[in-house]
Amino acid sequence: MSKYDQFLKAQVNKGATLGSELANSLIEQFSIEPENARKIIQRAAQKGTIISSTPLTFGKGQFLYVKPGQYFGIEMVKEASRDSRKPLYRLLEILATYKIISFYEGLKLTASPDEKGSSKISLLIDILPHLEKLGIVFTKKDNLGNNFIIIKEVIPPLYRDLSHEPDMEAHLQSMKLDAVIIPDILRWLKHINLVDLGATYRSALSPAIGVKHNEVM
User: Fold this and answer.
1) Which of 111-125, 147-161, 190-204 has the least mean pLDDT?
2) Going from the N-terminus, what domains does the chain have, and what CATH number goes with each?
């Protein structure tokens, strides 16, 4: 193992580390150029000396790196995204708290349009496959066709198909209650002129389908 690989291995053994931090450590330790540092990290990941979060990135195309055999947990990824990828951070922060959210709520948290365009903003439909590949979340439809995002690590694999149905039903009922109460609050806010007359909210009959404004849910 080269001196660079030994150094990188020692760094990730201390904890999950972003690529920019590894590169800066290499530059400081060995007085090498930034481009050389990036290539050293790339080769170390290809050899399995360190493990990359690919395809999930954390700003400017950088990855998160861990030691071999380490799991990319939700708290780890959430903290790494705190400053570098705000939409991802907001999504994981709510998931870490509630364990399950609707796809509509995920769209709101990431401020995603309901259709993909040419913008480079972080879209929920782009984020989810990456989180699923890392084993952090999975998606599931209920028998009414409502989509939910569920933390994978809180459900034992042997019982995953059995245990999430009650959680999805409970969350749907919570959304229905929310949809019943919020319109009353909106009407009161309109009455005291804090919101305009165009304020709208999702229907209690279909709470998993949100209201679209300027192509954003």
Assistant:
1) 111-125
2) 3-70 (1.10.10.10), 77-169 (1.10.10.10)
Choice among 150-159, 164-173, 175-184 with the minimum mean pLDDT? 150-159
- Helical H runs in the chain? 3-13, 19-30, 34-47, 74-81, 86-98, 103-109, 124-133, 160-191
Contact between 134 and 77 (Cβ < 8 Å): yes
Amino acid letter at 150? I
C-beta of residue 62 within 8 angstroms of C-beta of residue 19: yes
When pLDDT is cut at 50, 70 and 90, the band that residue 160 belongs to is low
Sign of CA dihedral 29, 34, 40, 44: positive
In sign, the C-alpha dihedral spanning 159, 160, 164, 165 is negative
- Nearest-Å Rg of the Cα atoms of the chain is 21
Question: Do 167 and 177 form a contact (C-beta atoms < 8 A)?
Answer: no
Extract the tokens encoding 35: 């481009």
Which stretch of 51-65, 73-87, 104-118, 123-137 has the lowest confidence by average pLDDT?
A: 104-118
Distance, CA of 24 to CA of 31 (rounded, Å): 10
pLDDT tens-digit map of 179-199: 667 677 677 777 787 777 565
Per the DSSP assignment, residues forming a β-bridge with 114 are none
- Distance, in Å, from the CA atom of 79 to the CA atom of 138, rounded to the nearest integer, reads 20
d(CA 65, CA 51): 5
